[in-house]
Amino acid sequence: MQALINDVSEKMDKSVSALRNAFNKIRTGRANPSILDDIKVDYYGNLTPINQTSNISVEEGRSLVISPWDKNLIPEIEKAILSSDLGLNPSTSSDLIRVTMPALTEETRQDYIKQARAEAENSRVSIRNIRRDANQSTKEQQQASEISEDDQRRLEDLIQKETDKYISIVDNELKNKESDLLEI
After folding, report:
1. HSE of 101, CA atoms in CB hemisphere, 13 A
2. What CA–CA distances, in Å, run from 82 to 26, 40, 129, 139?
3. Which residues of the chain have pLDDT under 50?
4. Contact 108, 29 (CB under 8 A)
5. Cβ–Cβ contacts within 10 Å for residue 74, how many?
6. Residue 23: enclosing H or E segment and its boundaries?
7. What is residue 132's predicted lDDT score, i.e. its pLDDT?
8. Collapsed DSSP state (helix, strand, coil) of residue 102
9. Which of 22, 68, 93, 117 has the least CB density, counted as fewest CB within 10 Å?
10. Among positive and negative, which fits the CA dihedral 145, 9, 7, 134?
11. How far is CA 29 from the centre of its chain?
12. Which helix (H) or strand (E) holds 3?
């Protein structure tokens, strides 16, 4: 019984982690190195994430400083950032690349909030699907006489409590992301 609940918790935890990763890619007015996580550069013939080719740090809250380990990568990194759909414009000075986060307009804030809400809803759907699969598993166990009807109800109640807990975590994450996006 406990193994099923642990499995449900683990899967729901992965859904929340995926949501947090998706939220990290939604740009706010503040600089955050994780926004560059999906950008890859050609590093000796291999597409490699920028954070594996450079040091990335936040400078003055609104800009990122990228310091490549190999200075020959500077043009590649600039090109990769420009071709990403993040709307960022890098500027190079000697051996550093600076990326200043543009201020968000009201329209872009609303677009990012819509994107965040869609990601949160995807996460909720994923959590509900995990609940559905777990409940189906308990029904099959009960029909195979592996557990009693009472145990099945208890398991379904525990699964529902886990579902409610993780849905509320998703709602809190969304609320935090929305407040970040609305912050000026």
Report:
1. 23
2. 17, 12, 38, 53
3. none
4. no
5. 20
6. helix 2-24
7. 95
8. coil
9. 93
10. positive
11. 17
12. helix 2-24
Distances (CA, A) of 93 to 4, 12, 87, 136: 55, 45, 20, 59
The pLDDT value recorded for residue 95 is 86
Query: How far is Cα 96 from Cα 90, in angstroms, rounded to an integer?
Result: 10
Side-chain-side CA neighbours of residue 167 (13 Å): 14
pLDDT digits (tens, 9 = 90+) for 89-104: 888 888 888 888 877 7
DSSP track, 121-147: HHHHHHHHHHHHHHHHHHHHHHHTTSS
**Alpha carbons 94 and 91: distance in angstroms, whole number:** 10
pLDDT tens digits for 94-141? 888 888 887 778 888 888 899 999 999 999 999 999 999 999 999 999
- The reported pLDDT for the residue numbered 34 is 80
Distance (Å, whole) CA 164 – CA 159: 9
* Per-residue CA distances from 13 to 71, 133, 136, 162, 176 (Å): 40, 16, 20, 10, 18
Cα distances from 23 to residues 46, 66, 113, 158, 182, in angstroms, run: 27, 22, 10, 29, 14
Whether this prediction's pTM lies above 0.90 is answered by no
pLDDT at 123: 96
Question: By the 8 A CB rule, do 127 and 15 touch?
Answer: yes
- Nearest CA among 33, 44, 88, 37 for reference residue 66: 33
